[in-house]
Amino acid sequence: MFNVTTKSMQWGEETLTLETGKVARQADGSVIATLGETSVMANVTFARQQKPGQDFFPLTVHYQEKYYAAGKVPGGFFKREARPTEKETLTARLIDRPIRPLFVPGFKNEVLVMCTVLSHDLVNDPDMVAMIAASAALTISGAPFRGPIGACRVGFEDGDYVLNPTVDDMQDLRLNPEQRLDLVVAGTKEAVMMVESEAYELSEEEMLGAVKFAHEQIQPVIDLIIDLAEDAAKEPFDFQPVDYSDLSAAVKAAGEKEMRAAFAIADKQERTAAVAAARETIKAALTDEQLDDANLGSALKGLEASILRGDVVKTGKRIDGRKTDEIRDIVAETGILPRTHGSALFTRGETQGLVVTTLGTGDDEQFIDALHGNFKSNFMLHYNFPPYSVGEVGRVSGPGRREIGHGKLAWRALQAVLPASTDFPYTIRVVSEITESNGSSSMASVCGGSLSMMDAGVPLKAPVAGVAMGLILEEDGSYAILSDILGDEDHLGDMDFKVAGTEAGITSLQMDIKIAGITPEIMEKALAQAKAGRVHILGEMNKALSGAGEFSVHAPRIETMQIPTDKIREVIGSGGKVIREIVEVSGAKVDINDEGIIKIASPNGDSIKKAYDMIWSIVAEPEEGAVYTGTVVKIVDFGAFVNFFGKRDGLVHVSQIENRRLNHPSDVLKEGQEVKVKLLGFDDRGKVRLSMKVVDQETGEEVKKEEEGATE
């Protein structure tokens, strides 16, 4: 019944296995990839016909993590997987980015790639396994795919690169100083296609070395996929790109002059209007048959690309008049919103981000339910890209893949410089509202986020800036690397290369290629040019930081205290009774974890002190020989019980009340009376022994022995 093909190899510390022919046999390509005990199934289907009028490539990638893969039941009321998590969305993007440019140019048939995590050993992250499975499934599907690609994750520990570090090694790198890098690289046999990273101030040389190391390590994976395809690949789909060279020539003849003049306009909105007018001029000169041609959009885009690209490579002059390594004018402002905890407005040319920081308590931490376990995050960055930012009318909905991806990129860039939670016990939420966009709004979010947090008084290790680089690579091998790219340069160029970091090193790197890869020489030059741009932007940002750093009066104050773990139960009380009372009486928020670390939060310092004192009275131990002020709570024949230390009571024996014989303690004491007592110690049963007669009840000073003896 089954015609199973299996290929395996040793890859790093684990065995990598690719299998096809048993599951999902009606898909065009289906592969189950297994690394260790993590298995991902990738299924590929593609339409045999292009939809009429289709002028873009409709590739859709889905990545799904099934809870059963880790032996878990989903949370929530319905107990089934719901909308994609952030991890699933980011992984789908991770798979899409390196495979999209490798389809044959002109192929516009619908393609669906679905990756499903079937098993997770909690050691090997399924995202890399999914990328390999998707590549293998595409390679054997018969689709016009110029792969395969390989992919791997790289760590950096003690100066050495680590292939496919474990999930635990990559979990919350900020708390793991030995690990300085989480890098994902995908590429073909010849070149790198995609880079995504979270780093801790790595140098350009260290980062480039990591990319080269990754490219070397994926070579055997590519060979394994080729080996699988030689035995199991389907017949290639008979696809021949449509030759629309005549249409392209007609488009060029009809409006090259007008289009070239439009791209000479520096202002984005004016240029956009002029390009639209040039398009209409071209269409007016075409025949009805040419206007109905499905390739008209591609021909128009080809003309625009040839004008923009050719001029840059030949003259070194860009459409807005800048040199290739020139950064647009920057204006950075902080403290622009009166009631927020921290705010900044970062403007670079026609790209602008309004970034706001809010400081919260432990109650505000984000709870993340992942396959490998549940954990909390005290740093969130949310990115919003409304239609008005590009002067358009559009539907406004929840965050899409773009918003999630750009927000995560900025999060990676900034979290490397955050203070330890023990030094700054706040939950930090940064929101980037993109109010204008013409290239690299994610990097504007990095710059604005850094400024906004410093305005809120967050003690960052160093400011972080980001810059987006572009590439134009011509067929003859000539190329130009562009700093701080515009939207049009991103749209019509060959590379989107985003680098963020401090003056000391890189904290995040993301690269997407629209061609069949780039060489190490180009990447090295792009990194060097990006560093110069980053340093320039940091200099401009520093001008806005002179007034930043004061803690907002509207932000909660948080004080931490450490108590013995065996006292946690006493602070919480039965059913939470004690801690609720502390919160109600003090007015402060109180959060306690399993390690005995208590965070007390309130905008009011008096509330924090009151809560602190109440907790301290519960957990602290009274000191033998010390003098305390207490209250008589009960009088008995043999003495009086005094509440002297929090909720702790002790006995003042009748012989320890005064230096004279008393008939009954009530002769000198009454309930509710304030007295001063000295802690003499504890009896054999642990009961507290107190004395009043050795303490001057007026001053609270201990009575000297000679005075005590004289009175006797």
Total beta strands: 29
Can you give the helix content as a percent range? 25-40%
Strand order in the largest sheet: 8-7-9-10-21-20-18-19
The number of helical segments is 17
Report the sheet with the most strands, covering strand number, pairing sense and barrel closure.
Answer: 8 strands, antiparallel
Task: Give start-end ranges of low-pLDDT stretches.
Answer: 706-712
- Mean pLDDT across all amino acids: 89
Give the percentage of residues in beta strands: 25-35%
Radius of gyration: 34 Å
Q: Assign the structural class, choosing from mainly alpha, mainly beta, alpha/beta, alpha+beta, or little secondary structure.
A: alpha+beta
- Basic shape: elongated
The end-to-end distance, rounded to whole angstroms, is: 107 Å
Walk me through this protein's architecture.
This protein is of the alpha+beta class and 712 residues long. Helix content is 31%, strand content 28%. The chain is built from 17 helices and 29 strands. It has an eight-stranded antiparallel sheet, with helices on both faces. Strand 5, helix 1 and strand 6 form a beta-alpha-beta unit. Helix 15 (577-586) runs antiparallel to helix 16. The longest helix is centred in the C-terminal third of the chain and has 23 residues, at 520-542. The radius of gyration is 34 Å and the shape is elongated. Mean pLDDT is 89; it is low at 706-712.
